[in-house]
Amino acid sequence: METAFTPWASLGGGALIGLAAVLLMALHGRILGATGILGGLLRFDDPTDWSLRAAIIAGMAAGPLVWLVLVGELPVIDLPVPNWGVVLGGMIVGVGVSYGGGCTSGHGVCGIARFSRRSLVATASFMATAIATVFVIRHVLGGW
Amino acid sequence: MRLLSAFAIGLVFGLGITISGMINPAKVLNFFDIAGTWDPSLAFVMAGALGVAIPGYRLVFRRPAPAMAPGFQLPDTRIIDRRLVLGSATFGVGWGIAGFCPGGALPALGTGDPTVFLFLAALIGGLLVARVLQGRFPARKPA
């Protein structure tokens, strides 16, 4: 399935992602990593910490709804993957980001922005295997 | 104020994911499909994010502490080990299969798309499986 190349929207949306990361550090002193924020939501020992994480995630989920109000339609979500692939991939992502200590937002944006060598290595690793995985699925196995 | 600011920051992130197109897994998967229907948009998202975050962090870290918390919570590990590389490599395999990463899926919750809930349930399952494994084989705490 082809998707349109959107350099300006992607650059602008990316700038908002970077702005959110800077604001979270400036106000709350935290890395804006989806893995870390979600992972902490699965611990219940610190209610103040929990409510902050819950508020961030609620704000994230409000993004498409605010977009709906602004432009009159929800963003398109096309998932050219069968449900069992979504479940399998989701579980593998969960295990991988736990051991790798972060995902695209935590390592790829926040980590690289503070010139962490760990994050650079992590980002190179997951980008490389994601490219290899899609190559195998689409061009070796013939697609889903 | 504390929670309102956290919500607003989440919203900026969620709008960024929406506007950048990264809320759509088809677009993300096409970034990885260099040999096929390649869509380079994700590279522009990273460029936009880093273009703001690099100078922004530089300004923020000039201050002694964040505005609403006692200190900065930054990962202190600097070691590059097998755990980091293999964990990240594993994440990439899952990302290539499912098309969603955690930062794309959380904003996508707001669309109500049922496959997003399916992915997030599986993701949380994976996080909990890793937590059990890590409890059994304790090593460094993830950042």
- How big a fraction of the residues of chain A is strand? under 5%
Please give the alpha-carbon distance between the first and last residues of chain B: 27 Å
What is the end-to-end distance of chain A?
Answer: 12 Å
What is the count of structural domains of chain B? 1
Low-confidence stretches of chain B: none
Order of helix and strand elements from N to C terminus of chain B: HHHHHH
Number of helices of chain B: 6
- Summarize model confidence as the mean pLDDT of chain B: 94
Decide which structural class fits the backbone of chain B. mainly alpha
Oligomer: heterodimer
Helix content of chain A: over 70%
Structure summary, number of beta strands of chain A: 0
> Biggest interface and which pair forms it?
A-B, 112 and 120 residues
**Helix-strand topology string of chain A:** HHHHHH
Number of helices of chain A: 6
Can you tell me the residue ranges of chain A where pLDDT is under 50 for at least 5 consecutive residues? Answer: none
Largest sheet of chain A: none
Précis, in short:
The complex is a heterodimer of chains A (144) and B (143). Chain A starts with 6 loop residues before the first helix and ends with a helix.
Structure, described:
- The complex is a heterodimer of chains A (144) and B (143).
- Chain A has helices spanning 7-28, 34-41, 47-71, 83-100, 104-113, 117-140.
- Chain A is mainly α and 144 residues long.
- Chain A is globular.
- The termini of chain A are close together.
- The model of chain B has no long low-confidence stretch (mean pLDDT 94).
- Chain B is 66% helix and 0% strand.
- Classes of the chains: A mainly alpha (144), B mainly alpha (143).
- At the A-B interface, helix 1, helix 2, helix 3, helix 4 and helix 5 of A face helix 1, helix 2, helix 3, helix 4 and helix 5 of B.
